[in-house]
Amino acid sequence: MTNVKPPPKHKATIGGYLKRTWMLYAMLILPAAFFIIFRYVPMVYVWVAFTDWNLFQPSLWQTPFVGLDWFRHAFALHDFWPAIRNTLTLNVLDLIFGFPAPIILALLLNELKFKFFKRFAQTVLYMPFFISWVVVGGMAIQLFATNLGMINQTFDTSIPFMTQPWHWVATYIGLGIWKSAGFGTIIYLAAISGINPELYEASDVDGASRFQKIIYVTIPCLMPTIIILLILNVGSMVGIEFDRPFVLGNPAVFARADVISTWVFRRAFLNFQYSLATAVSVFQSVINVALLVTANVLARRAGERGLF
């Protein structure tokens, strides 16, 4: 018997690897440039939070160092802690009512058997995501105004959707769900499409109903995706987008609508307190990172796959 020698193994080289995968790295150039220019380069100006800087300073590095004075000053302001409270309140309510919404929508869409209607429903649900909050704010005034709003005129009511604090909070949460829930289903539908069909076939053999398949097959298979997105949501609990509360807010509900992002905007661009605004932004980022790490550790200890 003749011994057949295996073909010689070619030693992998960096040049050969790059020759095979250069297109993948080329596709990374624009995303990497975006993060470097708009995420990492501005981090240099975190130094402003520890200095007494203003627009007339000749150089950032020549401004006097004040240490943590701006942080102490922010914590002593009477309107800082209400902004923190409002931010946490709105984010917790968004998490309670807004986070499950795309999951429920994805489960319902997955159960639709008529492909045409399913695609039509997905398109209708995605559309609000692409509408600017400025436009949504104008629509909200036309729909929910106490006296001239279409809803109150249609039903002959005078519900203060936009002028009473807790009515405003409910309107704020509802508009957020309407705008983002449909687009959020994309991730869950993609995860559902990756579930092994044999699991559903086995449940058919066991006589499971459609509802039982959702409870015992679909949702458990979605749990890794749900946990990762939940961790990301918890990690931004102290942060909040600027345009949504700024556009929907008004003086009548200022006590509930003033959040960290609007507080920072007011201090930086109306009062020109750039160091104070930067200090609060740094504080906000540190707390968000701490919450993200804590949520990830708790998820891993609970036996789930964390973010890292």
Mean pLDDT: 88
CATH superfamily caption: MetI-like
Order of helices and strands: HHHHHHHHHHHHHHH
What share of residues is helical?
Answer: 55-70%
Query: From the coordinates shown, what is the CATH architecture?
Result: Orthogonal Bundle
> Given this structure, which CATH class is correct?
Mainly Alpha
Structural class: mainly alpha
Strand content: under 5%
Main beta-sheet strand count, sense and barrel state: none
Number of alpha- plus pi-helical segments: 15
- CATH topology: the name is MetI-like fold
Form type: globular
How many E strands?
Answer: 0
Instruction: Give the number of domains.
Output: 1
What does this protein structure show overall?
By secondary structure, this protein is mainly α. The chain has helices spanning 14-27, 29-40, 69-76, 80-98, 100-111, 115-126, 133-144, 150-155, 165-193, 197-205, 210-235, 243-248, 254-257, 260-270, 274-301. Helix 6 packs across helix 9 (165-193) and helix 14 runs antiparallel to helix 15 (274-301). The longest helix is centred in the middle third of the chain and has 29 residues, at 165-193. The chain is globular.
Brief sketch in words of this structure:
The protein has 308 residues and is mainly α. It has 15 helices and no strands.
Topology diagram in text:
Blueprint: H1 14-27, H2 29-40, H3 69-76, H4 80-98, H5 100-111, H6 115-126, H7 133-144, H8 150-155, H9 165-193, H10 197-205, H11 210-235, H12 243-248, H13 254-257, H14 260-270, H15 274-301
Helix pairs in contact: 3-15, 4-9, 5-9, 6-9, 9-11, 11-15, 14-15
